[in-house]
Design a protein that fits this description.
Layout: E1 6-11, E2 17-21, E3 25-29, E4 36-41, E5 52-57, E6 63-67, E7 72-76, E8 82-86
Antiparallel strand pairs: 1-2, 2-3, 3-4, 5-6, 6-7, 7-8
């Protein structure tokens, strides 16, 4: 599978480059090849596709990945299984529940030094 439609990049604690794609994939990228080392499909807790826009790695190794259509921040295992979904304040939910616009949310993500875990 070709690496395409990338939305976010990060490195894990081992220096592995990770990338998320809009079409619900998490790529592990090698430094000396054009092909990904691994490709993991991403689905949310209810089995829906994830419109992933950003990725960070928590200090426990889990991957936090945003879904801009829900909006949500999902926590995934290293093997791509969803663990849970972080709570989103009501104001950041899509209108009419909040003030966000559908498909225009959570375009980026960062962790403070020390991570969230």
């Amino acid at each position: 599978m070709p690496v395409a439609e990338l939305s976010g990049l990060t490195r894990d604690a081992n220096g592995q480059l990770l990338a998320v794609a809009d079409d619900s994939y998490l790529f592990s990228l090698g430094s000396r090849t054009k092909e990904p080392v691994s490709v993991l499909p991403l689905t949310g807790a209810a089995g829906q596709k994830v419109d992933s826009e950003a990725v960070v790695v928590d200090r426990d190794g889990t991957r936090l990945i945003t879904d801009e259509t829900q909006p949500s921040i999902l926590r995934f295992t290293r093997s791509g299984h969803v663990l849970d979904c972080l709570p989103v304040p009501d104001a950041l939910k899509v209108a009419s529940a909040g003030r966000a616009t559908h498909n225009l949310t959570f375009e980026g993500l960062t962790l403070l030094p020390g991570g969230a875990g």
